[in-house]
Amino acid sequence: MAFSYSNLSRHTSKEKNRLPPELLREIVRFYSTQNTTLDQDHATSSKPPWQLFSSLSSASKTLRALALGFWFAIFVVRHVYDLLDSNIPFPEIKTSWTREIHFIRWPKGLQFNIVENFMRLSKIRIDCSKADVVPPRESNGQLLLKDIELEIRNLYWPSPLVTQYISRTFPTLRVLRLRQTRTWCGLCHTCCIPEFQPPLPTVIRYEGGTGLPTHYAQALSPLEYLEAVYLDVGVVASGKTTLSSHEGRNPDFWIGECDRCIEVMYEDESFRKEWLAKKKNPAVKPPRLTTVEWSFLSKEDFDSSSWSDDSEE
Ligand SMILES: [Zn+2]
After folding, report:
1. How far is the CA of 263 from the centre of ligand 1 (A)?
2. How many Å lie between the centroid of ligand 1 and the Cα of residue 144?
3. Which one of 5, 56, 67, 203 has the minimum C-beta count within 10 Å?
4. In angstroms, what is the span from residue 258 Cα to ligand 1's centroid?
5. Taking a C-beta distance cutoff of 8 angstroms, is the pair 201, 235 a contact?
6. pLDDT digit string (tens) for 179-198?
7. Residue 62 has pLDDT above 70, yes or no
8. Rounded-to-integer distance, Cα 199 and Cα 249, Å
9. 110, 117, 58, 126: which is closest to 93 by C-alpha?
10. Hey, is 277 helix, strand or coil?
11. CA 247 to ligand 1 center in whole angstroms
12. 106 C-alpha to center of ligand 1: Å?
């Protein structure tokens, strides 16, 4: 779809040529969608810059309302004070516009139930930095909204303590996305960047409720509405073990184990078989979990500060 905003402005300024509001809405929706998919860099928001909407918003009263509505679909929070009613510029942000709240840093001291007044909210995104203590020492209360997706980026040490915190704080979660360089090895109980021999995997998908690190599955098991977990992790080509995305090239049913543990511990065939059976039939897991998808990203896909030195040792 291609159109000129100057033409659109001229048309809407004339009563006889005014476009139907339904069509205008679809045009602005399309424009907004086109500019909300550029988010590949963790340091930026999915929210498009206002400059892309400002001329549209001045074309007419109708277009201004539509442009504001779509632009505030993502509400960026820099400080917990941004969520106070006195600091929210339009009441429609809470009643109808906002679908996603994006915390661009860990919301220290926030009680998450404060966002329950956002009537159309369907997603919360939280960006962390290396300096953030996650999980935090203080409680963030509980968010009980249903049908919510939670995305957390750049966790430096994504241990099961973090997934326990998620489970306590977001008990009605439906989708969980974790984007971080490291993952949890359930054998040596450390976090590390996945490491393999080339060819490197790109995406591995598990159906039927398996595919999570065992300790993650235990920590998330109280989440009765959780249907899907998406894990974006880093990958490096310096490993000694292999794993590719091709069918049949995941015989060990990889769920986050580090290269060193696979190399050393899988030498014992009886241990390997026992561990494999445990992974394929976890004792506890979220009851409605159907999809676990691992995506493997390169160093360039992450902020340099989140990529550890230990991957280059
Ligand atoms: Zn390990």
Report:
1. 10
2. 35
3. 203
4. 4
5. yes
6. 999 999 999 999 999 999 99
7. yes
8. 11
9. 117
10. helix
11. 24
12. 28
